[in-house]
């Protein structure tokens, strides 16, 4: 296929409630959707959609939203256009000369992948080798103003039927809310925490006090670069250590596993450069007996649909952050937003990621459009 034209649709979607993590509070979702137009070998036009998971500020990872758009426009899209022949499987290779910028690369690979699969009439789940028609749906709960509020919010999600609770924690909002949630909802609640790198190894004794609460895992307690320190922490606490921010590639996953820094890995396609690298991490982890689950970045219905297919691979043995669209949004950009029912979400079966962008909603959420065009079109 040849990449002929690329549009970046910048959008803003209101969140149903503020979402607070140890690195800050989000009140709106700002991102851009990538619309890629490709020409197939037999002369047909294929359109595919991707989305960026970069946050507006570089607080979760070094990338940020405006930077991701710039990197796509200035370096990545021109490289794909210049390459002539492009497939989803070669995007990563064609962009390897650009260091880092995984989220920008992932957004682009996503759009090419969706276009390619639509042209073939094949679903992403079938392409990946997904083995389940539904996947368990977990919910990520932000840091609340009080312990009582935490219990109330968690109770609301459990009433809706979510299969697993993940609670964000930070110093000063950790032991008490965790103990209260465990006490209120019982020992059988699948329950885990996410620190988003808010602690240091000097907090090991404090963190080990979480051990008595029977958590599924603690996600990314230490800094992104602290792989060895995570291994040390894992020796000092019995709660399984799961990495998110630190796993930026398949190589990083292999290092973390070899060093004993992760007995569980959160796989986020955007963080690692795309869905194909995400599948490689699944494969490596599975070969080592390391459990994986699919993380989230408050994606729109496009990213959530793709995540559900990924999470249907056999190594995804823990519930993912694949909540229903209504967890974050009253309205989504796709015609059929992800819906949680009976603790699961359905894996889409339509061509590509299996979702359609709603033109009217896209226009309503859109704050601007930019275009990268092939001179030789
Ligand atoms: O650490 O998993 C995280 C959102 C933004 C940045 C980092 C994280 C998150 C979430 C959201 O936890 C989970 C979701 O999208 O449902
Ligand atoms: Mg996380």
List its traits.
single chain, 377 residues, alpha/beta, Enolase-like, domain 1, TIM Barrel, 2 domains, seven-stranded parallel β-sheet, four-stranded antiparallel β-sheet, 13 helices, 23% strand, globular, binds 2-succinylbenzoate, binds magnesium ion
H/E series = EEEHHHHEEHEHEHEHEHEHHEHEEHE
What is the global morphology?
globular
Helix content: 25-40%
Please identify, by name, the CATH architecture of the largest domain: Alpha-Beta Barrel
Class computed from helices, strands and strand pairing: alpha/beta
How are strands sequenced across the largest beta sheet?
5-6-7-8-9-10-11
Number of domains: 2
Count of DSSP helices? 13
Main pleated sheet: 7 strands, parallel
Percent of residues in β-strands: 15-25%
Measure the end-to-end span. 13 Å
CATH classification, class level of the largest domain = Alpha Beta
Count of DSSP strands = 14
Task: Indicate the topology.
Elements: E1 2-21, E2 24-39, E3 45-51, H1 65-83, H2 88-94, H3 102-120, H4 124-128, E4 134-136, E5 138-141, H5 147-160, E6 164-168, H6 175-185, E7 191-194, H7 204-207, E8 218-219, H8 227-236, E9 241-243, H9 250-259, E10 264-267, H10 269-272, H11 275-287, E11 291-294, H12 301-310, E12 340-341, E13 344-346, H13 359-365, E14 366-373
Parallel strand pairs: 5-6, 6-7, 7-8, 8-9, 9-10, 10-11
Antiparallel strand pairs: 1-2, 1-14, 2-3, 4-13, 12-13
Helix pairs in contact: 1-3, 2-3, 5-6, 9-11
Bound molecules: 2-succinylbenzoate and magnesium ion.
Short description:
With 377 residues, this protein is of the alpha/beta class. It contains 13 helices and 14 strands. The protein is globular, with a radius of gyration of 20 Å.
């Amino acid at each position: 296929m040849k990449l002929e034209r690329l549009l970046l649709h910048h959008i803003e979607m209101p969140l149903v409630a503020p979402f607070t993590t140890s690195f800050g509070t989000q009140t709106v979702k700002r991102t851009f959707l990538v619309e890629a137009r490709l020409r197939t070998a037999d002369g047909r036009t294929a359109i595919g959609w991707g989305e960026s998971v970069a946050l507006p500020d570089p607080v979760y990872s070094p990338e940020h939203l405006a930077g991701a758009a710039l990197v796509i426009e200035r370096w990545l899209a021109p490289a794909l256009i210049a390459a002539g022949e492009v497939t989803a499987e070669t995007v990563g290779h064609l962009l390897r000369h650009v260091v880092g910028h995984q989220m920008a690369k992932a957004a682009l690979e996503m759009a090419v992948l969706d276009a390619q699969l639509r042209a073939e009439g094949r679903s992403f789940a079938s392409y990946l080798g997904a083995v389940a028609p539904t996947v368990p749906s977990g919910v990520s709960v932000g840091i609340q103003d009080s312990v009582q509020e935490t219990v109330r919010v968690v109770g609301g999600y459990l009433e809706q039927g979510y299969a697993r609770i993940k609670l964000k924690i930070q110093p000063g909002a950790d032991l008490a809310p965790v103990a209260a949630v465990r006490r209120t909802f019982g020992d059988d609640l699948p329950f885990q925490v996410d620190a988003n790198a808010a602690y240091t190894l000097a907090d090991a004794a404090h963190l080990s006090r979480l051990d008595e609460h029977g958590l599924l895992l603690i996600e990314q307690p230490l800094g992104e670069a602290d792989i060895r320190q995570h291994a040390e922490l894992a020796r000092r606490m019995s709660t399984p250590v799961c990495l998110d921010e630190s796993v930026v590639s398949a190589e990083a996953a292999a290092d973390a596993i070899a060093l004993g820094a992760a007995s569980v890995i959160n796989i986020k396609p955007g963080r690692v450069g795309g869905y194909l690298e995400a599948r490689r991490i699944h494969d490596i982890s599975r070969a080592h007996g390391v459990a994986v689950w699919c993380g989230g970045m408050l994606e729109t219905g496009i990213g959530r649909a793709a995540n559900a297919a990924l999470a249907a691979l056999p190594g995804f043995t823990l519930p993912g952050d694949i909540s229903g669209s209504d967890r974050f949004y009253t309205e989504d950009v796709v015609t059929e937003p992800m819906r949680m029912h009976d603790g699961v979400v359905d894996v889409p079966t339509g061509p590509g990621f299996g979702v359609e962008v709603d033109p009217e909603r896209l226009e309503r959420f859109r704050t601007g459009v930019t275009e990268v065009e092939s001179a030789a079109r």
